[in-house]
Q: What sequence folds into this?
């Protein structure tokens, strides 16, 4: 069974903390993505990576950074968490080709207080 | 400008009726793919169906079909004979291709909350 696993289901962090969200996939996919999901806004792409150490900004990269040191792992970093980053974060992976579906992790509900 | 537009924030449908969820998209690329995902209240994202920009036939997967009208840039999802378990958020998404192969990230619409009533 293919899997994308996010390290935490729920996280509560304080304003100003550095936060790491980890994602691991076991499908040898080249592409990995981080989205945030907010009610009424759908899923918005934060960053994606198409190879180890490669990254591309998505639609809302401000306040976030990413790291991909190994093919199977893609980390989202909130350098200094703020309350407006309270959200559901979804990691996904896919093959390189256009017609390949993305597989999603179970999501991390982050609350910044 | 929004790349994916879903104009129905919410829909109520009687069980066993057919449902059409609207999706329009905006791209200047010739090569792109359109996806539909279902997200039940449990939160998981479930892939439903894919349509490529060069596909001449509308995609079908069981009770799901995609009404692809390229000139109108629309990719509506049709669910036949709806069931109570179809109640969920539904997202339309697009992926644009690179000329040398490969593809960009998925861009999602804001979703439609579908509720099937008994």
A:
């Amino acid at each position: 069974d293919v899997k994308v696993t996010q390290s935490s289901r729920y996280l509560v962090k304080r304003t100003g903390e550095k936060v790491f969200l980890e994602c691991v996939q076991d499908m040898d996919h080249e592409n990995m993505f981080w989205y945030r999901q907010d009610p009424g806004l759908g899923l918005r792409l934060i960053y994606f990576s198409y190879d180890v150490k490669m990254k591309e900004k998505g639609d809302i990269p401000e306040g976030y950074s990413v790291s991909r040191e190994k093919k199977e792992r893609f980390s989202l970093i909130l350098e200094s968490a703020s309350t407006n980053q309270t959200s559901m974060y979804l990691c996904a992976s896919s093959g390189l080709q256009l017609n390949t579906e993305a597989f999603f992790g179970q999501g991390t509900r982050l609350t910044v207080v | 400008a929004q790349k994916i537009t879903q104009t129905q924030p919410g829909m109520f449908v009687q069980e066993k009726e057919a449902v059409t969820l609207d999706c329009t998209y905006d791209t200047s690329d010739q090569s792109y793919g359109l996806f539909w995902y279902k997200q039940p209240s449990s939160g998981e994202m479930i892939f439903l169906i894919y349509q490529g920009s060069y596909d001449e036939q509308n995609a079908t997967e069981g009770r799901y079909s995609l009404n692809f009208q390229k000139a109108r840039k629309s990719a509506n999802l049709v669910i036949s004979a709806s069931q109570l378990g179809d109640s969920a958020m539904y997202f339309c998404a697009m992926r644009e291709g690179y000329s040398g192969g490969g593809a960009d990230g998925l861009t999602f619409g804001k979703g439609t909350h579908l509720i099937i009533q008994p």
In short: The mean pLDDT of chain B is 93.
